[in-house]
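note to self: dont lose this again. the chain is below, predicted strucutre after it. 194 aa total, dont forget to put it in the shared folder this time
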Amino acid sequence: MASKFQCRLVGTIVLVAIGVIVLPDILDGKKSHYEDDVASIPIKPQTDEQKGSFDVIEPDNDKATLPDAPVKAVTTQTRSSQANESADSDASSTSPESTDEVETQITSQPEKNDYRDSAWLIQLMALKNASNAKKVVADLQKRGYQAHTKEENGFTRVIIGPDVSKSKLERQLDELQKITGAKGRLLKFKPLNP
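---
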């Protein structure tokens, strides 16, 4: 049989378990749950059924075109319009519409901005491995150079520039050779095919 101590221990454990499990439910009273207030957005606002309808007008196509080169307007008058003007000056009644013809002469104008010698760039190196070229460009950009890559004929070219100052790029050639070990070439910048 069990000893008195074991019976008391089992009884105490049962009483504590009942107190822990049952008493909070009895003494809790009214349970309230805390929930956030959520405002729902209405699905579709209620509007009046009156909707405006608008007619879409087709645009007018103008058949006039601009000439290829700059033009100079030359105004010439026909004899009939000169006669009408002299009749207008004699009789100050109603004025008829004048039929002035505008003649245009196409004049050639030289290009004011000659971009052939305006900018320069340095072609530093051409590498087969594009990732190596991008690493070199990233390093040069960190050092403050305007470096770019250009893929051409299976090679990735490392280019510095363009810049309008040829002397500035010539000074950078020596600095770039010390940094990368490659001797760059100074080339003219072609905007349409850099």
